[in-house]
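Newbie here. two chains, one complex. Structure please?
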Amino acid sequence: MNKFRLLSLIIGMNILFGCDQQIQIEAIDELNVEAFLYANEAFEGLKVTKLVSLDSVEADPAPTDLAPEIVTGQGERFSLIYDPTTERYENADLMIEEDMTYRLEIPYNGEVISAETFIPSAIQNLTLSQTTYIMVEINDFSDLQNITPADPLEIEWEAEDGAYFFVAFANASSDPDPINTFLPADLPPRFQRQSAPSTDPYYTIDVMREAQYFDTYWVDIYRVNPEYVALYEDNSSGTGTLNEIRTNVENGFGIFTGINRVRTSFLVKR
Amino acid sequence: MRPFQTTFLAFIALFLFTFQSVVAQDVFDKTVKKYYNNQPLSIIIIGWQIDYGVKFEFDREEIEGVFITTTIPRSTLREAIQYLLKNTDLDYELLPPKSIRLFPKDPDAPGPGEVIIPASDLIPSRENITVTGTVKDQDSGESLPYATLQVVGASIGSNTNVDGYFSLFRVPSDTCLIKLSYLGYKSTYVRLTPDTDLENLDLGMEPIGNELAAVEILAEREDQMMKASTGISQISVSPAQLVSIPSLGQRDIFRSLQLLPGVSGSNESSSGLYVRGGTPDQNLVLFDGFTVYHVDHLFGFFSAFNSDAIKDVQLYKGGFEARYGGRLSSVVDITGKDGNSEAFDLGVSVSLLNVSMTAEVPYANGKGTLLIAGRRSFQSGLYESLLDLSDGGATGTEETEVTTPAGPGFGGRGIVDVEPSSWFYDLNLKSTYTSGDNIYSVSVYNGQDELDNSRDADENAVRGGPFGGADSDVSFQQEVVDESNWGNTGASIGWSRRWSDRLYSNLMASGSNYFSNRDQGRYLTIEREDTTIQRNTATGEYNNLLDFSLRNDWEWQLNHKHQIKGGLSGSYLDIRYDFLQNDTLSILSRDDQGFLGAAYLQTQSTFFDQILVRPGIRMSYYSPTGQTYLEPRLQVQWFPTDRLKVKAAAGRYYQFANRIIREDVTQGSRDFWVLSDGNSVPIGRSDQLILGVSYETADYLFDVEAYYKQLDDITEYSTRFVLNGFGRNSTLEYEENFYNGEGLAQGVEFLAQKKSGRLTGWVSYTLGQVQHQFDVYGDEPFAASHDVTHEGKIVGVYQWGRFSLGGTFIYATGRPYTAPIGAYTVELLDGETTSHFAVSDKNALRLPAYHRLDLSANYTIPYFMGGNAKVGFSLFNVYNRSNIWYKEFDVIDGSILETNVNFLGFTPSVFFNWNLR
């Protein structure tokens, strides 16, 4: 009797342990598109890649024989041709205009991958609290003690409420003189610093701390669309947060978005 | 045949076979009902051997000439033997499995495990009487709630109420034998005598000490850790006995409940209970009458309740009666210890997680008791292991299993060593004062967790990974602020009064507060060769819940067959939740208040001594919706024989406060409570149906229950970026999204329990299914995140003298999850390349099966430093199974990197308990 019961137990546990559900996921064949449309500039090109399937080592090569088109809000169509040197689909005739709608269409696998974006207008009334900074070259410790603190640079502009911006600034020269000679000699000649997208119509730069060289600094204020901000904020991974796909592309993935940037500058000199 | 069906049938076959084979051994519990008029004992013995399969051992000369004249009422064989021999000079000893030894009676020696005055010595003076009184622990004077009283030989019984009061009606005479049983206590027989005070009968029960096990193993003992036979889907748990099973450091009530059938045991990261497809927030947790909204210490690896301060735990897995409400699935009703009313007592407990101390002080000549219990954690190696797991190893040095295709150029995973600071504590205070028929009590609970996970790091702090240390051409500075604290405070003031032997009332005012705060910020600067990128993000999350309640409950025992219970309650609920980004952007802000009033009425009636019916109705008024909600309930139990019980329950349940999970694996999932508003968060509703059958003997219980639970208007939550409008006026809003849907939970539970003897424990199996359907995820239902198809548990405790050896084994189907089916990268305007995923259908995949074996050994030291002590160790996850908690995914150079974040591996722990008494 005991042997029979033990046998039953073993059989039962074997069945229990042996019936894990195995679910196979089919390989995915979808496209990722990337295109940033800068206002008042020529179209930079469309990058198309294939998605990597979960069970593959790397993505299949991006298709080069697609026939994408960009349709303007006025109904004008621009066909994009693949350029193997840049590995993008391009059309040199396409100039991006602000306040215009653009639509991307790519026939693929019997469907049309599409996305639509609007080119935002430029910011207005851009002002800088200061355009020139005079700073002391730091060669030894006594120079550090003689530094006079400088006011931070405050940049302000105007745009519609709720618009998104981010700011990037960098020095312009390729061989500038460092402010602080204590710093390593092999410092990169150009520092670029960028902020995260924000709705704040202002930005502050602590020039004393952030400027590394005596040089002219370009400041670019990018006005970006909400679809870009959504993508930028999507840094999630893991089984709990995979349900939200932040893309404005239908039947595909990626980003197709308009940008308007305005440039200004300030100078840091001895 | 599909594996699911095959497994189901195989388990049924296994269950039935085990059931049948064990039942066959238990002759002492066979039912006997006889009348003998001057029959020779030798002939009766032959008849019993034939009829019941029992074997008698005796000296033939000693039974010669013995004639029996007696009436044996319907009773078990072990009881019938007393009737049979009561007018003889013979005594007996039960010799399991099926022998009875007869020998000449020694007038100075009581029967085994019993002190009974022979009925033959007494002449009844009163008949058809009512007996009322209190059942208490004979050592500490602590009243024992929900203890069972049974008049031996008659189908008359009762249970004590929460204060230990009982009323036994229509007791045949004042010489009857009453059997007392209570979990964790030695079954006690009390003979009424004509001198007994029938109105204030104080009955004492002796707690089971392991030191007694070796010599009294044959006595009847309710020494199992849990009792599943009390009602329908109701399980009683003995906190005192939980010390025998393996634990992570210290015995843990909620961890132990997870070993019961129907309660998910595979979720190590939450002390909350997933009961029959319900979520932890659908489980009402009451502690001395006030609601506890959060039961986790240390991110759920340890529960918030100090076992040393708990007297009784009742778990209602479903179909619960009308006096409980406000939850969709289940109830855990915890009664705190009153404290020793006989003498001062002191207890100290030390484990690898915490140190705790309990003091019990009687006052007012024992009328009053005071109990103070406190626990405080300290950061041992075990504590830090659990802490590391709490955030998936992000703050510690936990190495997770990495499975990645052999893709090119994977730079490795950078690991930052930090030393998070964390602690938790909890305090219990309870005072009870008894004055005549009045009991006044105050109970206070306060518990809190703190975690400071803030750290600064730069490339010099990183071992390996893409930054590659100080010589890399990439450098970064990161300041991370991560401070969390959460906790509960609850208090109740109660007055209970026994107005008569039939009428009892309880008035209670209570308050409960739960709070959870988290401030998190990440300030990162990455410097590459020619680029510096700044990324600053900060979030703040604040949840605060207040619950003030007043309730009045009445019990009216009409007669021995009918009882009425009713009550009124009112609760004011105030729940705030704020989720801020960058200190200024309010992502979600809710501030809800509501009044919840409820009235209930339920009756309990017994028909034909075989059928117990308990209908009830609960009516709730909820001010935010201005509506009244009716909740009919019904429980029916049928006892065809003394051992067999057929049971059914059905009911409707509403839930007005919901705990919502905001899933975020990278920064740790958070949950928060919100009040239903009838719109975005509707009033949840469930309809339950339970059918079952159980067969119970003195030593074994076999129980099967099937449940069906329809869930309507359940809510999930997610914050999402939503693009509104297009073109110039387009906006991006971080919207709160409460998704509403429905669910279905159904399953069958099998339980085979061995209740007494050296080896006790149970084997259980649950076949279950939990499906949800939310329109946002599509038309088809999908497996809920806590759906577990198969779950088997084996729990065993072996008493060996002063040693107690315990083992638990859990097997569960892996839980469902949503996985990426593809990935892509996008180069952002700042030059950073970010990874994104295309995902499968909701919960389309399952993690590998979960299984774990834990072992423990305890040793009782009866005399140690003026008291008694217990020392033991546990081995958690003995064979170091890598059970996956969740998966993380990343894209590195075109390959998907899959990381398994695992639960705790092999972990030894020790504890030491000392008690003055």
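Moderator note: Chain B touches chain A through 85 residues (CB under 8 Å). The two ends of chain B are 59 Å apart (CA to CA). Thread marked as resolved.
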